[in-house]
Each structure stands twice: as structure tokens, then as C-alpha cells.
Design a protein that fits this description.
The chain has 122 residues and is of the alpha+beta class. It folds into two domains: 6-71, no CATH class; 84-114, no CATH class. Helices cover 25% and strands 14% of the residues. It is built from four helices and three strands; from the N terminus they run E-E-E-H-H-H-H. It has helices at residues 68-71, 84-92, 97-102, 104-114; strands at 6-8, 13-22, 31-34. Strands 1-2-3 form a three-stranded antiparallel β-sheet, with no helix packed on it. Strand 2 and strand 3 form a beta hairpin. The two termini are 28 Å apart. Bound molecules: zinc ion (2 copies).
Length: 122
């Protein structure tokens, strides 16, 4: 299996270069994906030194690909929620059909997040 899409059980988020996202810096809205190029620590879950959050190039410019919190030895930023485009993809794409069947509660929460009423089928 490639690493286009995976699951980060630490932050409870989908990760991989196939997942569109926002930079996790609280003051930044830069559009990135959750691939290896953007992860704090340089590997999924952040490796030994990183927090495993995802940052744009300007917030991951420090040595060893760490965010400013990890460079300073501070607690990680709060993880940002998934972008609407990704929720929409998971709710409608055929490749996620099995997942939707097995995760009814998450599907419900995602629909609430997107403002789609429960009765509407994608
Ligand atoms: Zn970090
Ligand atoms: Zn950023």
C-alpha cells in the first residue's frame, strides 16, 4: 500500500499526500496536503522529534523540518479540522463506500459539519 492516504491514530486524522488540508499553524490558512513534504518531524506521526502536524513551507523552514513549537520544545499546536473538500470527498467518493458503511457515526458527524442533513444521500 502506498502512502497516498493513511490514518494518524495520534491526531485522529487522515494523512497522506492525497489528503488536502490547511497548514496547522494557527495564524496560517495556506493550502497544503498531509504528505511527507509537510509533516513536522519528517515522517508520519512526527518521528522522534516532531509533533506530526502538517505545515506549509514557511512554517516548516526550521532545521530538520520541525515547526516552531517543536524547535522551541513547546507543546504542539492544536490540530486543525479537515477541510470541507476532504469531508465531501469521503462522503461521496466510491473508494470510501466501505468506510462509510463501517463508520456510520463519523459519517453522521461529517454531514453535520458540512451542514448536510442526515437524510440526504450524496
Ligand atoms: Zn511540530
Ligand atoms: Zn503555514
Amino acid at each position: 500500500m502506498g502512502w497516498s492516504i493513511g490514518f494518524d491514530s495520534n491526531w485522529q486524522r487522515d494523512i497522506g499526500y492525497g489528503v488536502p488540508a490547511q497548514c496547522d499553524h494557527p495564524e496560517c490558512n495556506e493550502r497544503i496536503d498531509r504528505g511527507l513534504a509537510y509533516v513536522c518531524g519528517g515522517e508520519p506521526y512526527g518521528g522522534d522529534d516532531g509533533c506530526g502536524l502538517y505545515f506549509c513551507a514557511s512554517h516548516l523552514r526550521w532545521r530538520r523540518n520541525l515547526c516552531e513549537q517543536c524547535v522551541a520544545g513547546k507543546a504542539a499546536f492544536a490540530a486543525k479540522p479537515d477541510v470541507a473538500e476532504w469531508l465531501q470527498h469521503k462522503l461521496t467518493d466510491p473508494s470510501w463506500a466501505d468506510w462509510r458503511t463501517e463508520h456510520a457515526r463519523e459519517v453522521h458527524e461529517m454531514r453535520m459539519t458540512l451542514g448536510i442533513s442526515q437524510g440526504v444521500k450524496p
